[in-house]
């Protein structure tokens, strides 16, 4: 679990205390309120709340009312997982915040207004370096080794200043992509767990404004294409603008020259974008690329600022999760078919196993998990044009 924001309070506090206070206010007849630590830890884990939310009374109340039942038994009051009767089936509701919460703490205002930008691409293409380039400081860990699970995201808040000196808050999601064009059963299960957290987080904070798809100047591989398909079509339903950021441009002069030579190759691979930037995302050893780095910072920041006046895309929660988990399921089946004859391959995923995983790891009730698993499973037999992940030859850039 990653906690990347701390609450705007100076005194010590315990999330369980905030929940107990709410329970005792709601049920004055109760003599004692009981909250197990696993309850609030799960709320953080699945992205229903940030740690700071536990000190925001109204915010906490909304999420508790929408997602838990209050039970009173023998003078004790406690919470039980499960939406209230009357709420829509399987829809673990995350309330939409408005700016009218009174008085709005600065943290809350900033969070709801801040556009979310997904930084995606294969491991090693320079996503974390691009985040540091945008921020102008070292926020994300840059590494030469592959880390993280597909759809796991870490957020970074940055402020960009426009030409008129006005500051714009942007939230960058450093999002792990696919490492291969297919998923193993276990990778799939972890990916949908991460997808659940990501979706909760994105819905809570206004949806998605822009996808920055990072590519290393080298070649378009089948993994590049699968990742493009995953983020643009499967996660964002082709409703979010995609900006390509090509890293590793330190030896190009001008860096933009690379794009003129290679734009046609993207078209041939059906990879389209609404804007692009050719950058050097590392200052290099002893700052040898300092000039290219500075120029890249100006280019990429202005590309982001261009999206500040646009709107974010925000779909309905349950449908979003079912679509994503269902489409990804097809990629697991592919791998299973391909490895049918390999010794020691793991047993194929079953719908019951999927339901158990949704209950255990994604915090759905048993009833919700069974319903969701059925709907996700049904997607396996639905076909659409965009289901095809092209696995042709890799295409080399010039
Ligand atoms: N030469 C060069 N190296 C880069 C560039 N961008 C990133 N790198 C290096 O590529 C490696 C992976 O970068 P990282 O940002 O961790 O990639 P991520 O896995 O996508 O987050 C690191 O060693 C970076 O220093 C670039 O524009 N040029
Ligand atoms: Mg990284």
From TrEMBL:
Coiled coil: none annotated. InterPro entries: GTP-bd (IPR006073), P-loop_NTPase (IPR027417), Sigma_54_int_dom_ATP-bd_1 (IPR025662). Keywords: Hydrolase. CDD domains: Ras_like_GTPase. The keyword Hydrolase applies. The lineage of its organism: Eukaryota, Fungi, Dikarya, Basidiomycota, Agaricomycotina. This is P-loop containing nucleoside triphosphate hydrolase protein. It comes from the Eukaryota. Gene3D superfamilies: P-loop containing nucleotide triphosphate hydrolases. One of its GO terms (molecular function) is GTP binding. Residues 117-225 form the G domain. PROSITE patterns: SIGMA54_INTERACT_1.
